[in-house]
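Usage example:
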Amino acid sequence: MTNGPRGYNSGLVDAASGLISREIFVNEDIYAQEQERVFARSWLFVGHESQIPNPGDFFASRMGEESVILCRDRAGAVHVFLNSCRHRGMKVCRYDDGNTTVFTCPYHGWSYGTDGALVGVPFFREAYHSELDRGKYGLVEVAQLCCYKGSVWANWDAGAPPFLEYLGEFQRFLDLILDGWDGREGQAELLGGVQKWVIPCNWKFPAENFAGDTYHNISHRSVDLVGAGPSGRSRRDYGELNVARKLHVALPDRGHQTITYVLPRDHQPQPAYQNSPEVAEYFRHCEEERRRRPGVNSRMMGAPGEIFPNVALLPRQPRTLAVWHPVSAHQTEVWRFFFVDRDAPKTVKNFLRDYYIRYSGPAGMTEQDDMENWNYAHAASRGVIARRYPYTYEMGAGHAVEDYEFEGLRMPGRVVDLTKAQASEEPMRNLYRRWAQFMEAESWDDLMPWRDEPARQAQAAQ
Amino acid sequence: MNADRLLLTLDVAQFLYAEAELLDERRHDEWLALLAEDIRYWMPMRRNVKYGDTTREFTRETEDISWFDEGKDTLTRRVRQIQTGIHWAEEPQSRITHMVSNVVLLGVTPDAGEPREVSAKSRFLIYRNRVETETDLLVGKREDTLRRDGDGWLIARRKIILDQNVLLTKNLTFFF
Amino acid sequence: MSDPVNVRTLSVGTRVVLGSGAEVEIVANPGDGVWLFGRHVAGDAAGEEEMIFAQDVVEVRG
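Running the assembly step on the lines above writes:
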């Protein structure tokens, strides 16, 4: 059977050598297994509380292949439900968003409250003889939910660790997109309008790109040449980045990774957003506030990163989060969310919105070229001959360090200093090592080595 | 419909066909010359909304994220990007046909005899074919504001209403 | 069988008659065209609130 799965760590993913089989991208059996092994038990981004501010508000979202409803009930509690009637499966919500008191199934009329309870069953007394146990048939709710600084995450697996434990030391990178530019906690809100579009490739192509591909600038040369960035040059401002150490940070236990920039202890703010003096001044002021605020990181700058498995963060220029929803082995539906600080002036929000739209998304002059690469890399990997030749992720193998520190600022996990090296593939090896673990593990018990660590250390000490 | 209005409708339609020709022939610099310096080019996203909800079907201009919401500067950069020859999403370039139909005048200022500005609505069917077998069919409406420029017109405003919710093409490297 | 009634746009306060003959005042309308929340106005069930299924509404009494 040409689509038959083979062993992961031995055959398909060799994270040590950096050779990874093309099968994991194009094999339909592997894709099918991923739905159970990866998506049914990972923490997935569902939306942001700014989309559902009031009781009864809802936003139709997605987890893996499945449609879910993110909503706020009458008491103000947030829920995520499977968007499917318990009777015969019809979607109970086919609007993108809105406000409602009930979710009613058009097929037979079953109706659910915003807390998921089955409240309306036609002819309950007559046809059901009052015998149906309505308590058993509320909307299927996720096993775990976490609202973190407004972002909403959900997990179908009750055995998964809580969200912050799942994130581990990656929390500081998620903070970069959710906290205010001036360092205040959780100031992010979404701009209205979630971009949704389909791309003809496996979800792992974009996932690994955002894990930290610093090698593909040549692909974006055309947007750099036309100066679509916020200062009219290149595609973003590089002032600070030119004085920073450029790093890859990979958390092996968790499978999250990112590019990041760490600034020297006494760095000076660099000019940015120069297409608008007002916006430039706003951000300069935010930078100043950030430095003054005690306990706030002001030396670490956001850059592309990936939370396992399929959430891409870009905290800065542009400030956007993408979810790569699996549709099939060969197709992905991208949902892109764009953030601003909720109390930023209108001119700043307008300026950023202009920039976001021309940078990211299907009309994004940068993202367009990424998608072209993913599309044809996938297409060229489907044949039987192509599949015999693994991709090479050997770049920088063996050059990561732990306990990285730069002028007193410590970085977690395994770090590759890219300041001279330019690029490495440590983040990709990290992502796929974790992916292979998920594909092989029977349960979350086998996926939390950090919980065993204290016991192991205690034993070693004896 | 009097004679002036009939002729004006024909004039506007001919202009839109000529514009489509420029785009299909990849004569992008000449196409840019048809855009007013202060053009707004906007393609809202569309939501599935409850019957009767007239306010939330479309994302809002200059408020929300849309597919396009920009002026001549960004449109020019898009053209320049294609002209670098290394914009891989448009290299090799797509083959494209813009079909424009149902051209009607919505309004004329001051009158059809001596128009300074018209608003016109049309429908489009864009067929885009790319590389080997990639094919996209995009259908919708355009609401344009055209400003008299000598014997011709400049596009001062274009609102593009695409009949899709989830965008069914991987990119928007072309113009509507 | 009576003509069907579109309950989607009935306003709160409107009275409807059910197939059983009972008269009910609408206290909430979720706007889904399938359910109403109503309060019985007469008889043994007077004052009781229940969910009314659209198919059970035979007349709108204003």
